[in-house]
Amino acid sequence: MCVRQKCVNSEMYVLQRINIHRMVTCLQHGLAITRWGSNCRPAPLLTISPTRSLIDDEVTIEGRYLPPFCRITMRACLQSEDGDLWETHSHYNTDKNGRVNLTRDVSVGGSYVGCEPMGLFWSLQLAHGERKGLRLRKKNVETPYPIQISILDGHVTFEDNNNNNQELAAVTVERWYMAPGVRRMEIRQNGIVGTLFLPPGPGPFPAMVDLWGMGGGLVEYRSALCASRGFASLALAYFGHSDIPGPLNCINVGDQYFRAALKLLQEHPQVCGDRIGVMGLSFGVYLSLRIATQIGFSPRCVICINGPIGSNNKLSDNVSGSKIFEGDHKHWSFNEQGYVSFREVSLPNNIPPENKVKLENLCCPLLYIVGEDDLCFAAMENANEIEESLKAAGKSHLLVRLSYPGAGHLIEPPYTPNARASMFTTRPKKLITLWGGHLAPHAAAQEHAWTKILEFMECNLRG
Questions:
Q1: pLDDT greater than 60 at residue 325
Q2: Which has the higher per-residue pLDDT, 36 or 151?
Q3: pLDDT in tens, 197-223
Q4: The pLDDT of residue 382
Q5: How far apart (Å, rounded) are the C-alpha atoms in residues 232 and 108?
Q6: In this predicted structure, what is the pLDDT of residue 428?
Q7: What is the three-state SS of 281-309?
Q8: Of 13, 266, 34, 53, which is closest to residue 178 (Cα–Cα)?
Q9: CA-based end-to-end distance of the chain
Q10: 148-184 residue pLDDT tens
């Protein structure tokens, strides 16, 4: 090698050492420098624990080996059973060690703000371009919700083209309503249409009858979760199901149907026949209170979520039944978007006195849960009437009332997204119903209410 070439190589070596020294000096003094690549830095890592959990379990989410003081976006997305995309974005800043921990750190923007360890789950909303008016509800409880959690470079918005945002790390988690070992049994006997969920083990177990509202059909996910928490649960259909004789738009069952369902549950060998409660949401509240006060059955407890103390239509044991909302249209109200609210229908003053439950007959503890932003039912007014009626009957001690500001009608198991409005029916024409509820306060209500529901069941069914 010639002398000239040796000199050039020596100069390059010196310059490289000078540049390295300058960068080290800048880092030591906190000065900004251009980001530079290094094969020594570990790849960004996203850890979620556990990756397989029940829907009401909290998980820990942490990103590591990220650049310090870096803007990142935590993104969650899932595809529903109907093929619709649900997603959420939230903005975080890494700490000096290049870490972000959702249990500790604060979201500074996106779908939610503040320290919300489970925000990526309860803030899921329909992605842009998807069908309008949908509500996320699990149909097949024997499969999980697969949710992909990922870290994106920078603060990303819904309007951004996600294909142009670098994904730094990703993990898929499974969220279940059914724990391993829970047994699911379809019930189609003696005219009863339902699904019985039994916890793992031989039993016998305390049990709940689980009643939903006027959306009809057979809704199983809350019952599956109750069984996962140690309580047998019968998800009972009473309206809008093809296996129940009569028109689908009518309630074709009455007291006899509910007596038969309760007898079936009482006689099951893996159920404690004297430890049965009833839980209802929406119109299911009326049915739950009716079971507890008027059909000759004494449950150990009743749980009511945002529902009425009566109905505008009498229940009938005839197949001809009674049509839902018949004669109620005068009490319907619509907002500027044409979305309907049934709130005035359920006002106690608009319910015929003869169709109200006989609350003075109540002989078991009652937990009544109110969403103060319920736009579908007059939950506050019904709770007030229950309180006054029990006080007049000398039974105030039976009532536990929980009230949640900012929560809507659909107070369901925790960490699941709320729909402020969604499709109620498409026949004879499309109808979108207002449910109410603001995202963060509704999520907080669901988390707290579910804890209290389980405590109430534990105390009154197992205690």
A1: no
A2: 151
A3: 999 999 899 999 999 998 889 999 999
A4: 98
A5: 42
A6: 66
A7: ECHHHHHHHHHHHHCCCCCCCEEEECCCC
A8: 53
A9: 91
A10: 999 999 999 877 655 567 899 999 999 999 999 999 9
Residue ranges and CATH numbers for the domains of the chain are 45-176 (2.60.40.2240), 183-462 (3.40.50.1820)
Contact 258, 243 (CB under 8 A): no
Rounded to whole angstroms, how far apart are CA atoms 321 and 250? 6
How many whole angstroms separate alpha carbon 307 and alpha carbon 346? Answer: 8
Percent of the chain having pLDDT more than 70?
Answer: 87
Span 257-261, average pLDDT: 96
In sequence order, the 6+-apart residues with CB closer than 8 A to the CB of 104 are 115
Count Cβ atoms within 10 A of the Cβ of residue 120 and give its class: 0-12 exposed, 13-18 middle, 19 or more buried: buried
* Token pair listed for 273: 């026949």
Active site residues: 282, 374, 409
